[in-house]
């Protein structure tokens, strides 16, 4: 049975011969769909721009290496451990192999985790972006559906400012958050915010973002996970978040 396509690690990955590339390997795996939504009045339109200042440390991830893949997986594990420990119950055990795994093995592992995150009753949206432009480098199928795309691969290379994305009015805010995570190398956990969907509905979400960091300490991107929230619960959490914010 032919497997469906899953997200490649980056748009420029190509196969250059009969041997299957790690990007193609990831692209052949799939995720299922399960999208709970809720409604809320429209968000104010925020200005957007594609001319943001780049973080001081960047790297070329157009051809992902073992180090790139290992850094993405490590960021994924960090956000799961901190916020969604039940999302991948076997991740801790599986992660012990990452230090010695090949690029092909790491790409397969990442694709399997993305598939798990969109299976069954999971409502988690997973994505990552590559600095300095914060282009999407990968996502699970839940996230692609929120973005209005049937195939996660269609997101690769886009930024939040792309006119096809429903949350484009919030692109400036998302970009500022991403840059703060990368430049400070500090995670942002438990963010409560609203997000516009492809049909115009507004959904409350709980978001966590962590930096993607190479072994030498360079932060090269951001990985995020979010889940929709019940509106009543979200409002209460949003008030608590506002009270904790510095004045």
What is the ordering of alpha helices and beta strands? HHHHEEHHEEEH
Distance between the termini: 57 Å
**Which runs of at least 5 residues are low in confidence (pLDDT < 50)?**
1-59
Largest sheet: 5 strands, antiparallel
Q: Give the total of beta strands.
A: 5
Sum up the overall morphology in one term. Answer: globular
Question: What is the percent of helical residues?
Answer: 25-40%
Q: Oligomer, anyone?
A: single chain
Structural class: alpha+beta
Strand percentage: 15-25%
> How large is the radius of gyration?
17 Å
Tally of alpha and pi helices: 7
What is the overall pLDDT average? 79
The main sheet orders its strands as 2-1-5-4-3
Describe what this molecule looks like in 3D.
The chain has helices at residues 22-27, 66-83, 91-95, 103-117, 141-146, 171-184, 231-244; strands at residues 125-130, 135-139, 188-196, 202-213, 219-228. It is an alpha+beta fold and 247 residues long. It is globular. It starts with 21 loop residues before the first helix and ends with a helix.
Write the topology of this structure:
Layout: H1 22-27, H2 66-83, H3 91-95, H4 103-117, E1 125-130, E2 135-139, H5 141-146, H6 171-184, E3 188-196, E4 202-213, E5 219-228, H7 231-244
Antiparallel strand pairs: 1-2, 1-5, 3-4, 4-5
Helix pairs in contact: 2-4
In short:
The chain is an alpha+beta fold. It has 7 helices and 5 strands, in the order ααααββααβββα.
Give keywords.
single chain, 32% helix, disordered N terminus, 17% strand, five-stranded antiparallel sheet, alpha+beta, 247 residues, globular
